[in-house]
Amino acid sequence: MSTYTDSILIAFFITIILSFVLFIPWLIYTYRKYGYLSMSKTIIMFSFIFYFLSALCLVLLPFPSTRDTCSLQSEDTVHTNLRLFQFVEDILKDSGVVVTNPSTWLAMTKQQAFFQAFFNFLLLMPFGVYLRYFLKERRYWKRAFLISFLLTLFYEVTQRTGIYGIFNCAYRIFDVDDLLLNSVGALLGFFLAPIIWALFPSHEEVEAKGAEMEKMDIVKPISILLALVIDLCIAQMIWVMIGGLTGYSGTFEFLVNMVLYMILFGLIPSMMNGATLGMKIMRFTMVNKNGKSIVKQSWRRCIAIVTTASLFEVISTFGRIQLNMGSPFYVLQIVISLLATTAGFALTMIIAIHIIRVIVSGGKRRLYIDQYADLMATRKK
Predict the structure, then answer these.
(1) Does residue 205 register a pLDDT over 90?
(2) Is 215 exposed, middle or buried (0-12, 13-18, 19+ CB in 10 A)?
């Protein structure tokens, strides 16, 4: 049992790592497709990634202690079973079960072969559930069965080849019974899936909600935040390239970032009717409901962003001051460092609380940078 739990734990940590890499691209994709960020779609997709990685880890882990797996096996080691329903014979062997006597059937559940067969049956059942969600209709059950069969065939071939030559001998057996049990389990999951997916909005409901939000010109705060994150990521990527080429950092990095912010949040929106690159990706723009110049208001928003970044930089600079213990200002330096740390933490918490309040308001509140610039998000071009 510990082997199973260890494999699932490894898959969990891999999923966390992948989530950091895929989360923002996934949010961009789902927003562009449905017009809003669907939480149900996000839960389903990342749970599928976790399940798929868990199944893969359960099939392949733990790895042998050496790549020379042939040295760990005897010459008569069997690597392939092509005899269908061998698992039935293995379960009945030495179990004391009499097929004609139902009272003895319970003894089967005490056999290791039974648990192994039952595990293989359950392994791809969730995969069938996900296939029903992706394929949508029951009439595609043959397609689901074929996909499941090909997936389990991939697992078996991977095992039989020692993960395609990484290990010189197979460390697990290629078993046709596994092909059967995995595929049938996935098919059963496909037919039982409506019980699970009844708890989640359907594709049609998600699309209908997106169409309604677009018609009502609703842009959720999380979408505005995501556009801001995209713009900040663009600035960071540009700086990484500049920093790598020049080798400079410190004050030079701060100055370059300020220039990038003015271009991304001031110049570009002035030229693109209020939209930054992130907003273009998220398919909305900013407008002023009172008819004020979008150029002027975009620069006001830019000033709010640059001021915030500059404030953090000033606090960080004071916090980095270092003096020798023999200096007459050493005690003052400690006090300044403590004040800078406190100020940095307080400012971070204020902004974090503000962002949380904006998100939970559902659009009733605006980010302070948009409030200062008197700008509103709109889907209308």
Answers:
(1) no
(2) exposed
